[in-house]
Structure formats: structure tokens, C-alpha cells
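Re-running the complex after MR caught last week's input typo. The corrected sequence lines follow. Everything else is unchanged.
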Amino acid sequence: MNRLTSKLQNLKENKKKALVAYLVAGDPDLDTTLDLMHLFVDSGVDVIEIGVPFTDPIAEGPTIQKAHDRALKNNISLKMILELVDKFRETNTETPIVLMGYLNTFISHIDLVQSIGENSADSILVVDVPGELNLQTYGITNPNINTISLISPTTKDDRVESIAKNSTGFIYYVTLRGVTGSSNLNIEEIKNNIQKIQQYSDAPTMAGFGIKSVEDASTLAACSDGIVIGSSIVEMIADESKTKEFGRIGEYLREMKTAIS
Amino acid sequence: MTFSNSNFPDKEGFYGEYGGKFVPETLMYALEELENTYNKLKDNKDFIDEFYKDLSHFVGRPSPLYFAQRLTDHYKSGSIWLKREDLNHTGAHKINNTVGQILLAKYMGKKRIIAETGAGQHGVATATVAARLGLECHIYMGAEDVRRQSLNVYRIKLLGANVHPVDSGSATLKDALNEALRDWVTNVEDTYYIIGSVTGPHPYPMIVRDFNSVVGKEVIEQSKDLFGKMPDAVVACVGGGSNAMGIFHPFIDIKETRLIGVEAGGEGVSTGEHAAPLNDGTPGVLHGARSYLMQDESGQVKDTKSVSAGLDYPGVGPEHSWLKDIGRAEYVAVSDDDALKAFHEVTELEGIMPALETAHAFAYLEPLMKELDSSANVVVNVSGRGDKDINTVAEIDGIEF
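Corrected-run output:
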């Protein structure tokens, strides 16, 4: 079974919530990204989401945009990211890895995506492909890779069902109208919408976009199967990238883990 | 009067393998809402009447098809006709689209208008129609374009709109589009996004084409009146491609007319320093649509180079990509130097100062008129006037004010 699917099943059976943490590959450099991935795991992260840098990341707020820019200055490519995952897998075969990015980067490297083996990345999340479109249409048919679809507060009920069906990894519920890192969470609306999704689908539903505080994490974990933390980590990575003392990130993730437990 | 009887795009918004809707999920309902509204209104008599009434009384249509005597004499062959979109209110073809889209916004009850702009013409055209309806208006513009198009920035502000300079990426049109899309994702429920070219996710390329098609329809009638047949060639500059699509579209089934799109060749197509994806790009996905794109082997979008802010864009409207592949339109490129030369030439010979974008179309007359029969009628779409480019041209000529 796919590493991501089995991990999320396992957590659900044990009535635990998933902590998903995001970073951009190659920000500030690939060696640091590898260290940070291990730090994530040591701090209680269940799933690592690796941002695949793109020149025009239209769903990202300023924090993650800048991280994409920094990574692109290092000429980070999908090939280098898959090599990074191979290195990570030398010592960690447990933690599922999701590659999150934009369609153009993936379709420029269909051969690479198709060659992903069992002991590599586990899932792909393409931000700019509507949920009901199947990635198979674009030549991504690799059975080792499952796909994650997004549902947002503006998704109409009739589409929720078809989108949920296409998602083989988990359903990513976008918790706000806006780009990553914004801050206008409407907790009641989120709760209602996630309940609606769960009526249509048994797939795990993660809540993400705009989750920063321990309080948000705890409230949202209570009504979902887990939460995704992105911009706040990326901001800390940017702050500490000179000294490379990332202790604060570990501390933050442990607090988040406690908050959702 | 109807807008279009084209079979394209298909139901999913594709022109052959180009187009589509590649956007974050949050925008899907807004695109659907827009598509439904447009499909309902485009055959509605009141809506059509209101649109054409605004085009005559507010924009000043129809624009003339003008015989360029001295330019014709200069090339010593054929007859050159100018479609005078530069005479429109606000000075470019861009107003045709904004007049139409602001009506859609009005019918949809949207209170807030956003737009991206490159050369500033679309920003001015959007701020103009927003002012006319008293709607809040925000224009995103690359910081580099804010610098080189300062006159238009001031015009937009005078019209009561807010200009947001965009520093990210290459700080030009593509980055302004990114930022406008981010605004739309955030404020999607009360905001109407007036895209300024035949780019972006479906249904935009179709809507912008349909509103601009008035240009080509007029040319067909005017050609009959003025020289009794269809033109042998229609020439237009192509950045995103809205002026070209507007004049090309009604001609698609008129096979005797060659359709020639002129892209920005920058330093020359062979140098790689240009903005000519149809000449030197490959298919990719940017800003919600699949189309020819300037990208590297990793799928990253390349920086572009052009003296003209309005053509300085790495992508192009999906229908142009399709017209290129099926061979219905030809796409060529003209360098900065040749465009600047044409800018001066047309200004001096005709007393018409074209926009630097338009100057690219004029520059292609040099090879084209040699190639065509001496009886040929050629129509150039004068997409906009050049006042906005005076600072750029003066800087290049080493003149300080």
C-alpha cells in the first residue's frame, strides 16, 4: 500500500491527527532542506510536503513566493528534488512525502514523474489543476503516486463529490479564500464544510492555508483528520537561514503536535 | 447582432489542445459563474444593444479604415490601410473589451474591479469604465512597467483607481497577472477581474476575443466599401494577442485573407532575448491556460525582453497557438530596433504616432510589401497611439526633458 495512504489509515485507526509540514526544496539550499526534513520528523511531523519551486506560483502569498524565488536562484529542478528524496529515504522509509507544485513543472518532466519508484515520493499535489480533472489526462499514470485534490470554501456542493472521488491520497481543504499565509480563518464555515466533505468521502481530509497559532491548530484538528502548516515554517526557515540554527522550528512543531493530540 | 459563431473553444474551454482552466480551486466557481453569465447575456438583446451603444457613444466606434498614402508610396507597392484603433477613447483597442466586461460586472452585481496592465493601456481602459460606473478599482502593474509607463500610471490615478506596483519576479506584465490572480483568489466573491488580453483561464480568452471582434467585423464591411473586396493580408502585433485576435477572428473563414501576427523579437529571436513564444517557445501552462510559452527545460517561465511593455509577456492567447498549429495564421517577429525605426517612419510619413506595440506590426511591412503582389491591399491594425511611449523613445534617443 502507498506509504501516505497507510500512514493516514494508521493514524485514523489510533484516533490520532496528522501533522503535515511544508518547506520549499532548496530554500536556502538542498543540504539544509534534507536536515530540515529530518528535524521535521524528529519534532513529530507525520507527512512532509515539499514545495517544488515555480517562477509563477499564483496560489502563494509573499512568504512562500520568496522561498520559491530563493530556491530558483539555486536552479532547483524536479530531478534534484527526487534525488533529495532518495537521500532522505536512505535513513527514513517511514515518513510519507508529498510533492506540491504547479502543473507546468510536472508536465515538463513526465518521464521523471513516471519513473518514481516505491521508495521515493508518495504523492503529488498540483495546485493549478481543478479537482475533477484527472492527472492521468496529463500523462501522470504512475501507480506509486497518489494524488491530492483541493476543495475550497467556494467549491459548490455538486463538485465536492466528484473532486473527492479523484483524490487518492487525501483531500486538502483550503481553509480560506486567499493565498497561502493569509490570516482570515472562519472556523465555523471550515467546520461545516469539512463535515460536508466527510459525508461524501471516506478519504482523510486535511485542513491547510493560514493556520499559524496553536489555537487554530487545535480547533481545526478537532474537525478534520489533520492540519498542514506552511508559511509560518517557511518564514522561520528564512529568518534562520544564515545561522542555520533551526531549534525554534522544532519547538514550534512540537507545540503544534501537542495542540492537535 | 451576435458576438461570435465560432465553434471554438469547446465546452471545456479548449482550442484544439490549447486553453483550458488551470487555476486554484478557489477560482473555479467564479469562472463558472462568469461563463454562465456570459453565455446567457451574449444572446440577450438588451445586453448587446447596451454594448454597441457604449461602443458608438462612449468609445467613438466605428474606427476608420484609413488609406495611408505616403506609407504606400514609401513601399512603392500595394495599398496600405490603417484600422484606426488609436482613435478610440483612451487611445487603444483595449477599451472595446473593458466596456464589454464592465457590463458583465454590472449584470453580476460585482462592486470591486481589478485588472493587470503591462503598457498601462488596459489599466487606463479599466479605470475609465470603472470610473464611469463608480466602482472601486485596483490595477496591478509590474514595477518596471510603472517606471517606463509613468504617464499611464498617472492617468490611472487621475481616474480614481489604485495602482499597485508589483516587485516580484521580473516586475513586468506576467507578475502583474500573478498578483491580480492572487487578489482575485482572496476577494473572489465581490470582485470582478477584467483580464486585458485573450489569455488566462476559460472563459476569458473567448470573452475578450468576442468583445474585440468588433474590430474585424468593421474591417470586413469597410473593405467592401473602400476597395470592393477582402484584404490580401491583415497585420497585427501580438503580445497576449487581443488586438490581433479581435481583427483576425471574423476573418478565420475568409481564406483569401492572410492573417499575420507580429511578436516582439527584442534583441532578435536567435539571441533568446525576446518575447516571441509563437516563434521560439514550446507549449506549457501559465496563468490558467495551456499555450505556447517561453520556458526553460525545467518548465520554469523565462524572463522576456522587449522595448514594448505591452508585448513583454512570455505567453500568448491559446487561440493564437491553435491558429498557428492549424496554419490559419502566420506568426513572425520583429526586433526592437526595427520596431523603433517603424515608429519614427510612420510618425513622420503619416502624422500618426503609433504605440511601440503597434510599431512592430508596421515594421513587418518592409518584408511583406516586397513579397506581395503590387495590387495587394494590406490592413494594419493600429492597436494604440504612441503618446505613452514618448519617454521610452526619448530615453533611447538620448533626449532629456
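None of the earlier attempt is carried over here. The mean pLDDT of chain A is 93. Chain A touches chain B at residues 54-59, 61-62, 65, 69, 72, 77-78, 102-109, 127-131, 149-156, 159, 163, 174, 177-179, 182 (CB under 8 Å).
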